[in-house]
Specification:
Number of domains: 1
Strand order of the largest sheet: 3-2-1-4-5-9-6
InterPro entries: Methyltransf_25, SAM-dependent_MTases_sf
Distance between the termini: 30 Å
CATH superfamily: Vaccinia Virus protein VP39
Keywords: Methyltransferase, Transferase
Organism: Streptomyces triculaminicus
Number of helices: 10
Pfam families: Methyltransf_25 (PF13649)
Largest sheet: 7 strands, mixed
Protein name: Methyltransferase domain-containing protein
Shape: globular
């Protein structure tokens, strides 16, 4: 499925709450082709018990639940998690319809429905170069809650030459101070996903690539969507939001089309590893 262009958004202060909403309303849907490809390949359905690490505002969990899966999600961003609750647990919905926890996999107690049969970590390398050991530790802890042989899905950027968003994201790397902003964005290496899986004690067992174009209704939506990813947070701390926004617009200009929309073709890569 190709993501549709999002509706226009008026500029507003980019507070943490606004960025969480921008992620849910603008940016998260760009990853729908990735979610669909993984779920189709792994035949996610009523027998699936899924744990989503970094579930964000819950779109990936919602899509799995629509296939009949039992879903559980964890995320360290409380604002995104509240939006996930709005999606997955509307007023009157039973709490066992989806379990959502603030934090990492340690927040999940023994699953009442049995061990998980699928673990997803769709964002370990999509935004910022986080602590690889911390990521590996989280994956290892999550794997302890899964059945033996369960798939664990990791995702990251594809080759830079096939990711039009790389130019915009390089703004984040250039403006962030490398001495005090270790979470600045960096491009994924060819073996990053495999190395992360091995460090977590998992066994790589196949991979794939998916086209995930970034399409925005206008430049303002493009800026808000990209800022919501967190990839630019270190750059904003090292400089200021006005400078980051100005240089981001310049980087996005080559992708601005005559009708005012912004379109950036991207390829993402996912790895399937086994517990």
């Amino acid at each position: 499925m190709t993501p549709t262009l999002v509706r226009r958004h008026r500029p507003s202060p980019t507070s943490p709450a606004s960025r969480a909403r921008d992620w849910a309303e603008i940016q998260e849907r760009m990853l729908v082709p990735l979610y669909e490809a993984v779920y189709e390949r792994l035949e996610v359905g009523p027998e699936t018990r899924l744990l989503g690490l970094g579930c964000g505002s819950g779109l990936s969990l919602l899509m799995a639940a629509a296939r009949g899966a039992t879903v559980c999600g964890v995320d360290h961003d409380g604002r995104r998690l509240e939006l996930a609750r709005e999606r997955l647990l509307p007023d009157g919905a039973p709490e066992d319809g989806a379990r959502l926890h603030l934090g990492g996999p340690e927040a999940v107690q023994d699953p009442t429905d049995g061990p998980f049969t699928l673990i997803t970590a769709f964002e370990p390398l999509l935004t910022a170069a986080g602590d690889a050991q911390a990521l590996a530790d989280a994956l290892s802890l999550a794997a302890d809650k899964a059945v033996q042989g369960a798939p664990v899905v990791l995702a990251g950027w594809g080759p830079q030459e096939r990711c039009a968003a790389s130019g915009a994201l390089r703004v984040a790397a250039r403006l962030a101070d490398p001495m005090c902003a270790p979470a600045r964005w960096r491009p994924s290496g060819r073996d990053d996903l495999e190395n992360l899986a091995l460090r977590a004690g998992l066994t790589p067992d196949g991979s794939g690539r998916v086209s995930c174009p970034y399409g925005y209704a206008d430049m303002a939506s493009a800026v808000r969507g990209l800022l919501s990813t967190g990839a630019f947070d270190a750059a904003v701390r090292a400089t200021d939001e006005e400078q980051v926004t100005k240089e981001l617009i310049e980087a996005l200009h080559p992708h601005l089309r005559r009708d005012g929309t912004v379109w950036m073709p991207n390829v993402f890569r996912y790895l399937i590893a086994r517990v």
